[in-house]
């Protein structure tokens, strides 16, 4: 089978992913094999490819926003499988959690002491066939195409968790800093809650897209919006936007940082966090988050804006993502449904 393989991290512009041929894997007990249809291209993939995040497994096949058809199931003897051959399912970032630590036992598996992540701890979706843990597969609404569903499996789910961590309520004014794959989906969910959304991004093209998707205002970080925000979410992997977010936040409001990697947090005046303003990171997501969001996505409905690439152009997709030229989300289309 074809796969885009990372043997050594390097700048995206050097095209470090190599098209190679790998053996089709056999599922172990508790696993399903999927024929991959589509895989979203995420900023986390870029951090892995460029070496800002170091996978415990190298070489690695990246990709963790995967839509596929169940090709083979190998259930545990004592546990019936929750999926069947021929079913279309999704694979998110959280490949599996340990199920035994204090976090898993208290409903916080996103904070698991010994998690495994798709395309990081195990090979991901930049390939034609992959293995997935049966219990962590996600049902996909029939109303979504393969390429529409793929970005929802990380960008969408983590955006949903960010809204929860920030404490967004129906009717609030929400500020989004950065406007890539996750933010353009979080905007749609927030609008579904009746929220007013103000978007802060340097790109005029992204400002235009935000307004087309229902933002009430769009400008640059540092600009003064029409209203102060009840909550803000930062999506850009740069800490310099955090003081800007605090600067447009109401008293008692919260900033949620949606970033698996951040270049640092700059020094800023204490007055920006006074009046009980709060800052929190957003770490991974639970199966409950995934199930909640996919139901919401089918109901609102949430529709990602996608730019589609073939598997062998994964390097080009990552380069476009790095340089901010993607409108919405990049998706690799790997196969068609039979």
Unreliable residue stretches = none
Q: What's the gyration radius in Å?
A: 19 Å
Assess the beta-strand content as a share of residues.
25-35%
Distance from N terminus to C terminus (CA atoms, Å) equals 17 Å
Quickly give the CATH architecture of the largest domain: Alpha-Beta Complex
CATH topology of the largest domain: Quinone Oxidoreductase, Chain A, domain 1
Q: How does the major sheet shape up? A: 7 strands, mixed
- Whole-number mean pLDDT: 96
Count of folded domains: 2
Can you tell me the overall shape?
globular
Annotation, overall tally of beta strands = 17
Helical stretch count? 9
CATH superfamily of the largest domain: Medium-chain alcohol dehydrogenases, catalytic domain
Order of helices and strands: EEEHEEEHEEEHHEHEHEEHEEHEHE
Helix content: 10-25%
The CATH class assignment of the largest domain is Alpha Beta
SS-based structural class? alpha/beta
Topology:
Elements lengths: L1 E5 L10 E5 L9 E11 L1 H7 L16 E9 L13 E4 L2 E3 L5 H4 L10 E2 L11 E5 L4 E2 L6 H4 L5 H12 L6 E5 L3 H12 L3 E5 L3 H9 L4 E3 L9 E6 L6 H7 L1 E9 L20 E4 L5 H13 L6 E5 L3 H9 L6 E5 L5
Parallel strand pairs: 10-11, 10-13, 11-12, 13-14, 14-15, 16-17
Antiparallel strand pairs: 1-2, 3-4, 3-8, 3-17, 4-5, 5-9, 6-7
Helix pairs in contact: 4-5, 4-8
């Amino acid at each position: 089978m074809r796969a885009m393989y990372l043997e050594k991290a390097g700048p995206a512009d050097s095209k470090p992913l190599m098209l190679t041929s790998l053996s089709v894997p056999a599922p172990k007990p508790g696993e399903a094999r999927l024929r991959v249809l589509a895989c979203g291209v995420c900023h986390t993939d870029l951090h892995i490819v460029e070496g800002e995040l170091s996978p415990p497994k190298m070489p690695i096949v990246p990709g963790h926003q995967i839509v596929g058809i169940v090709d083979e199931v190998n259930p545990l003897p004592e546990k019936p499988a929750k999926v069947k051959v021929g079913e279309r399912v999704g694979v998110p970032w959280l490949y599996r959690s340990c199920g035994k630590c204090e976090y898993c036992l208290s409903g916080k598996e996103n904070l698991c002491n010994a998690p495994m992540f798709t395309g990081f701890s195990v090979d991901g979706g930049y390939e034609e066939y992959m293995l997935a843990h049966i219990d962590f597969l996600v049902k996909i609404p029939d109303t979504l195409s393969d390429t529409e569903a793929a970005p929802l499996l990380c960008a969408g789910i983590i955006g949903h968790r960010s809204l929860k961590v920030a404490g967004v309520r129906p009717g609030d004014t929400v500020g989004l800093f950065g406007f890539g794959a996750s933010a353009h989906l979080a905007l749609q969910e927030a609008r579904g809650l009746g929220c007013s959304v103000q978007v802060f991004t340097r790109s005029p093209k992204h400002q235009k897209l935000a307004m087309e998707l229902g933002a009430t205002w769009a400008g640059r970080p540092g600009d003064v919006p029409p209203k102060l925000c009840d909550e803000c979410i930062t999506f850009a992997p740069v800490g310099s936007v955090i003081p800007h977010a605090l600067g447009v936040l109401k008293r008692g409001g919260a900033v949620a940082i949606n970033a698996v990697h951040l270049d640092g947090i700059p020094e800023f005046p204490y007055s920006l966090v006074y009046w009980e303003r709060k800052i929190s990171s957003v770490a991974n997501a639970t199966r409950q988050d995934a199930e909640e969001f996919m139901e919401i996505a089918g109901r609102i409905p949430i529709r990602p804006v996608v730019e589609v690439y073939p598997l062998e152009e994964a390097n080009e997709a990552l380069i476009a993502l790095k340089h901010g030229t993607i409108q919405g989300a990049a998706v690799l289309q790997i196969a068609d449904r039979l």
